[in-house]
Write a structure and sequence with these properties.
Layout (H helix, E strand, L loop, with lengths): L1 E5 L5 H6 L13 H10 L4 E8 L2 E11 L4 E9 L8 H16 L4 E6 L4 H9 L3 E7 L2 E7 L7 E4 L5 H13 L11 H9 L3 E6 L2 E7 L2 E4 L7 H9 L1
Parallel strand pairs: 4-5
Antiparallel strand pairs: 1-2, 2-3, 3-4, 5-7, 6-7, 8-9, 9-10, 10-11
Bound molecules: coenzyme A.
Length: 234
């Protein structure tokens, strides 16, 4: 039986040594790069050794975002010598079980390089569906864990600005009046730097913003206003 074990002093070297085949290197970053990113993005990254008894057979890194109520499968690999024996499927099923058990998430997402048919088949057979979205030319798949998602609430970071501008443009096109900070990218950037902007999300999608204490929600998500207020007042 496999288990996911947070990478530790005991497993670090084996994880770092584990490799995919040369043809698969285009599909996933090296585990050393992933472990460096785990340090860089310490607040969200959860790096796991995939263990069969005492043997490290693979590596998985999750983007564990309780504020947004989503988990991203950021990295997933089974060492070349261990592939084709059911470890990939078992590891993904274990991750999904662990994420469901946490009861803090509504959706799991991941992406794969279009040529990576093995990964696509594995994810589809675990219940992930394509959404038509892409991230950097990779195809996005999502697994929705509930049909009654709750509102996520997270500080807007600089890397979210593009997404926020897209939401703003959509709302403006619908004729919604928005706070003055949203009138230009420069003003928004300054407000984000000053940590004045938070976002509301459903299943990882931005549905509104809180600027200082003012809540603006897309009209189609008005039913979530009470939850949004609770988040702001918590
Ligand atoms: C993708 C990967 C994680 C699968 O791990 P694995 O342990 O070999 O997979 P499993 O033995 O558990 O097989 C699970 C399913 O994956 C698919 N699969 C695995 N290898 C496959 C292959 N060579 N060709 C087509 N489908 C394949 C099949 O659907 C398989 O189900 P089945 O056995 O019922 O047919 C592994 O091949 C890998 O690490 N690849 C390189 C890194 C990578 O691409 N990571 C994903 C980045 S998005």
């Amino acid at each position: 039986m496999i288990r996911l074990e947070t990478v530790s002093e005991k497993t670090f070297s084996s994880v770092a040594r584990l490799k995919v085949s040369p043809e698969q290197e285009q599909f996933v970053s090296s585990n050393l790069v992933s472990l460096a990113q785990a340090w860089l993005y310490y607040d969200f990254a959860k790096p796991f050794a995939i263990m069969d008894d005492d043997t490290v057979v693979g590596f998985m890194m999750l983007d564990w975002n309780e504020d947004e109520r989503t988990v991203g499968v950021w990295r997933m690999m089974i060492g070349q010598d261990f592939q084709g024996r059911g470890y990939g499927r078992a590891a993904m099923e274990e991750a999904i079980r662990m994420i469901r058990e946490a009861e803090k998430f509504d959706m799991i997402y991941l992406s794969y390089v279009p040529e990576n048919t093995a990964a696509q088949k594995l994810y589809a057979s675990c219940g992930f569906c394509e959404t038509g979205e892409k991230i950097d030319d990779e195809i996005v798949m999502k697994l929705f864990l509930t049909d009654q998602p709750k509102v996520g609430y997270a500080l807007v970071k600089e890397y979210n600005i593009e997404e926020i501008m897209e939401w703003t443009d959509k709302e403006k096109a619908k004729g919604k009046t928005l706070p003055p900070i949203l009138s230009s990218a420069e003003l928004l950037q300054t407000a984000v730097k000053n940590k004045q902007v938070k976002m509301f999300l459903i299943m990882g999608e931005v549905i509104g913003l809180c600027i200082d204490d003012e809540i603006v929600l897309s009209d189609e998500y008005a039913e979530y206003l009470e939850q949004a207020k609770e988040k702001v007042n918590a």
